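Complex record, two chains
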Amino acid sequence: MDLLNAFVALANFVLIPAIAYGAQLALGALGVTLIYGILRFSNFAHGDTMAFGAMVTILVTWLLQGWGVSLGPLPTALLALPFGILGAMALVLITDRTVYRFYRKQRVKPVILVIVSMGVMFIYNGLVRFIIGPDDQRFADGERFIISVRDFKALTGLDEGLAIRTTQGLTLVTAVITVAVLFWFLNRTRTGKSMRAYSDNEDLALLSGINPERVVMITWLIVAALATIAGTLYGLDKTFKPFTYFQLLLPVFASAIVGGLGSPIGAIAGGFLIAFSEVGITYAWKKVATYALPDALAPNSLLQLLGTDYKFAVSFVILVIVLLVRPTGLFKGKSV
Amino acid sequence: MSQSLRSTALFVFVVALILGTGFVQSWNSALLILNMGLVSALMALGVNLQWGFAGLFNVGVMGFVALGGLATVIISMPPVRAAWAVGGTGVLAALAVGAATIALAIWLTRSIPRGKLRAVAMLAVLIAGFVLYRLLFDPATTAIEKIDPAVTGYLGGLGLPIVLAWPVGGLLAAGAAWVIGKIALGLRSDYLAIATLGIAEIIIAVLKNEDWLARGVKNVIGLPRPVPYEIDLQNDPAFVARATDLGLDVTTASTLYVKVGYGLMFAVVLVVVLVLAQLALKSPWGRMMRAIRDNEVAARAMGKDVTRRHLQIFVLGSAICGMAGAMMTTLDGQLTPASYQPLRYTFLIWVMVIVGGSGNNFGAVLGGMLIWFLWVQVEPIGAAVMDLVTSGMADGSDLKIHLLNSVAHMRLLTMGVILLVVLRFAPRGLLPER
């Protein structure tokens, strides 16, 4: 038995990746949940908004790299991120003006808006593929590791190594800052309060003089920023490929629904829940179990519950369980 | 313009487009477009049943289509006896254990009141069931996949005529739809969308990874065909004589003959389903469905079991998609799980339904054929446009190369624009519901 090594292995293969992935999902789910709360529809184009924002960031990153600008140990993409956010903001505002506003005025059923968002998804997806192509793009630079396996082993003298990649640390720090700013905005500023009021009860909010178009515009701006940050962090941590962003829709939506659609805290909790389950269920536990259990009980098999190809199945199963047991989600979102 | 005149004109227009392809490009491509157009029209009919009749938002069409594809393999491929010998019983037993576990879990939910006892019992049943399932399943599938992996490595099928796979594909899809419907119907409409999106991804993941079932990404090729092979026709003296009588090249004649054969079979299925759908639309059942769609609360107050009716029509529509999927795989002659893309198999079908006119069966058929034509032809048209746009640029400039290479992605953009334009300016589609 060697609990220390077991914990290090656990942290290296499960905890750290899951925390990073959970933060990315949480940021994505926050965007979905905000749109749902204010505009009252499920935005299918969200995955592709993330892809678009990340794409602009990547293009600016390449430009900066070409000029020889760098942030030293940090990825240059951080410098490019504000431009990516601006790009995504411009995109969603144009979309809102040309597409969504018309339907909002007509007060159509939410499901029509979902179909409209499907058309928008097609266009974003086509745009991204048109501009940057459907292939993998790498844009991470700077220091690769905060702690590499070798340093960790030398430092602690343990058998198991622990690596923290810069992108993972960065993901967590960025996500914490973003979420803190978002909650400060929603809870402390006048505009944020008017957004929450509008989300809680549209008619009352209108009566008290809140300008709905302004609320909607600010929501889109925030969502564009969140989507770009989430998309860029995901791209830095893993890789940028337009199609994977489309596939992120499922875990992102699962996070938002599990947490309770319309509830920002729920989105964060849902994101981490989905991420930990995905990583935990598709991880082969043999190594951890070998350390943690007495030698006599050491396992022969991989102890992997599901192949990594089935990671979507995990978010789906959690989603189904929540739908069956508690359709409003963990944090009592809206459910009509 | 009266509606019937309008629909006749539009259908004549689509026929003219396909005939035009025949004259301008080749009859081969015209027939290819026609055949896939017929299949697409069938898928659009299925989705129209769900969306147009009942207002159900299904974004898992791809999954049901893929299940139809799986049915062709299960029905038509010859069984691999060696694989059955080493792992057949193991897999069947494992699946039985899995089903029994789920059945037991459902029974527990129904019979024990909510509380700690139920949670513990449920967890115990699920964990025990899962462990037992894996103990039976893993060795069996490993053994099956070891049998001649380059050629088989799977259980094979039943060796029955492939046309049988069409109804079976419908049944498989109906089964999956029933499970999903049971879970997600009756909750808010977006939940069905997310649930179907999820199940479609999972079905594709299963097809890609379960090699014992249908060889996964190694693909099953050479599915039996319901029509003769070109090479056999070319060696048939009677056929050669007839082709030369008609003044046709024998090779061309044989490929056309095969494609026309498929086209006729698909057309028969499409007409039958269309007639049935039309009868259903006009029947009291169809009126009830539309009443539920237009005002659920009122329909419920009239004593209609809305959730049950939704489940019914959801299963029916998905079954049609499954059947269309089986027909499509029959046409392709191979099952390639990696080729199932949600944008192509789910969202494109939605564009067809919306453009054609949701709630109108003829509209769905029209939309299916028209959008499929556009989907195929946008690429050559886009390439021509791009050539024109870039003709002024210097050869070898990066921008020119990039633009020319990006033509392939014009399709998605075009489809999105078409969908948004139709939704905005003709929200009821080309052939509105009457």
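Note: The longest strand of chain B covers residues 220-221.
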